[in-house]
Design brief:
Blueprint (H helix, E strand, L loop, with lengths): L23 H13 L12 E5 L2 E4 L4 E4 L2 H4 L8 H13 L11 H13 L6 E6 L2 H16 L3 E5 L8 H6 L17 E4 L4 H4 L3 H16 L4 E6 L15 H11 L3 E5 L23 E4 L10 E6 H4 L15 H16 L2 H22 L3 E7 L2 E6 L9 H13 L2 E2 L1 E3 L5 E4 L7 H17 L2
Parallel strand pairs: 3-13, 5-6, 5-7, 7-8, 8-9
Antiparallel strand pairs: 1-2, 2-3, 4-10, 9-10, 11-12, 12-15, 14-15
Bound molecules: ligand PLZ.
Ligand PLZ binds next to helix 5.
């Protein structure tokens, strides 16, 4: 047994907290960390990871947590998924890096072939590969500006696009992402979004409001791109009212604006379609992807209309590590797992388990103001039942309670009052239901 891996399919699918949290080994590591890791980098959990697989993450003291986070929607195919591990092993023994800009290799081409096939629309598509979501967003904006010869970029309220200088400018929320880190990149314009629970507007009314702001404050003919998440992730799993997203896409088309879907969080099966734009019948001009597509490795991509992607001069796009062969082996393993195990359908089953249970909980506890989301991207918004105001402290307390009970949940939202669930798509029904039992207990304890 000593040679068999700890992670992947070998992890027992159980929740088991056997030490105080954090346990002694995690405490030791926390002390070392405090000496050498920047305080600017923080962690939600007080425990250090040892290994993981399926729906479980095990810490260095042997505590097993049910994972409803997937490392922020990354390990959709599970941690150390067997095909991901196998392909990485083969790749790492061949070569670790050549730089695609110097000596190309097949896996880059193969990943781009898959992306052309999997993304919405049957037009000719091309891709460029990068390392992080923010880097994909940076490049999508570069390409859209190059293609249109225009400067202005329109984003929406509650949007999140990354932590680099340009993507901080595109991100709405100040703390913790932007405070003190300015000045930010120019020519970014933020307009109202559709947030049905807060604004009560139909998709059409919200789109009319946004488009009117765009026309009056930016000018339709000044805009290179509209960049928007089909379901807003960090902003609080905000599902726009039906029609909003499509109307913005149609406005973009009518005004020669590149419509960029930021599917970094929603993409690759997470919402019960391969890409969330499909729920709204939208074919974006460009799509930014990262997270899930790498199967846990850093892979990001911009995929889009060939004429837009090819408009940039040769050598205009790149980077030392973009499309690293080991990371791409992970991506190829993730693509295979997603299709072989039918995980897009599995995301829809997860929604069918989670939504009714959470709606039932909402009936008992009016501090759950809203239950929403699609597929395996589900959230509850926590409010003060008397006033309807966001209840951030309660949200933190509920999530901390769940952590102590061995369930890893995340928070989100501009008002920090959204509890979000992003289980790996390979989680079993039993484990998912057990996690929901704990969430119920956590809500009850804080009602
Ligand atoms: N676009 C829609 O969700 C990353 C951020 C976590 P990177 N979201 C998690 C944090 O606090 O830094 C994200 C996203 C959307 C872009 C990004 C950025 O992706 O890979 O983190 O750069």
């Amino acid at each position: 047994m000593s040679n068999s891996p700890l992670g992947g399919n070998n992890v027992p699918q159980v929740r088991n907290i056997s030490t105080p949290l954090p346990g002694p080994q995690s405490e030791k590591l926390a002390k070392r960390r405090a000496q050498v890791v920047s305080a600017g980098v923080s962690s939600l959990m007080p425990v250090f990871a040892s290994h993981g697989g399926g729906g479980v993450l095990v810490d260095v003291d042997g505590n097993s947590f049910i994972d409803l986070a997937s490392g922020i929607a990354v390990t959709s195919v599970g941690n150390s998924a067997p095909k991901v591990v196998e392909k990485i092993k083969t790749a790492v023994e061949a070569f670790t890096h050549t730089c695609f800009m110097i000596t190309p290799y097949e896996s880059y081409v193969e990943v781009c072939e898959h992306l052309a096939r999997l993304t919405p629309g049957d037009h000719a598509k091309k891709s460029a590969l990068f390392n992080s979501g923010a880097e994909a967003l940076e490049n999508a904006v570069k390409i859209a500006r190059y293609y249109t010869k225009k400067d202005a970029i329109v984003v929406v309220e509650h949007g999140y696009h990354g932590r680099t200088n340009l993507t901080m400018a595109m991100t709405a929320k100040n703390m913790p992402y932007k405070k003190g880190f300015g000045p930010f990149a120019g020519e970014i314009y933020r307009v109202p979004t559709s947030y049905p629970f807060h604004d009560g507007l139909s998709g059409e009314a919200a789109a009319t409001r946004a488009i009117s702001r765009i026309e009056k404050e930016v000018g339709a003919d000044q805009i290179a791109a509209i960049v928007i998440e089909p379901i807003q992730g960090e902003g609080g799993f905000i599902v726009p009212a039906p029609g909003f997203y499509k109307q913005l896409a149609e406005f973009a088309k009518a005004n020669s604006i590149v419509f960029i879907a930021d599917e970094v969080q929603t993409g690759f099966g997470r919402t019960g379609k391969m890409f969330a734009s499909e729920h709204e019948g939208v074919v974006p001009d460009l799509i930014t992807m990262a997270k899930g597509i790498g199967g846990g490795l850093p892979v990001a991509a911009v995929t889009g209309r060939a004429e837009i992607m090819d408009s940039v001069h040769p050598g205009g796009l790149g980077g030392t590590y973009g499309g690293n062969p080991i990371a791409l082996a992970g991506a190829l393993g993730a693509f295979e797992t997603m299709e072989d195990e039918n995980l897009v359908e599995r995301a829809r089953q997860i929604e069918k388990i989670m939504i009714p249970r959470l709606e039932n909980l909402q009936k008992q506890y009016p501090l759950i103001g809203d239950v929403r989301g699609r597929g395996a991207m589900i959230a509850i918004e926590i409010v003060d039942p008397a006033t309807g105001e966001p209840a951030a402290a309660k949200t933190t307390a509920i999530s901390k309670f769940a952590h102590q009970e061995g369930v890893l949940v995340l928070t989100a939202g501009t008002y920090s009052n959204v509890l979000r669930f992003l289980p790996p798509l390979v989680i079993g029904d039993e484990l998912l239901n057990e996690a929901l039992d704990v969430v119920e207990k956590a809500v009850a304890a804080n009602a």
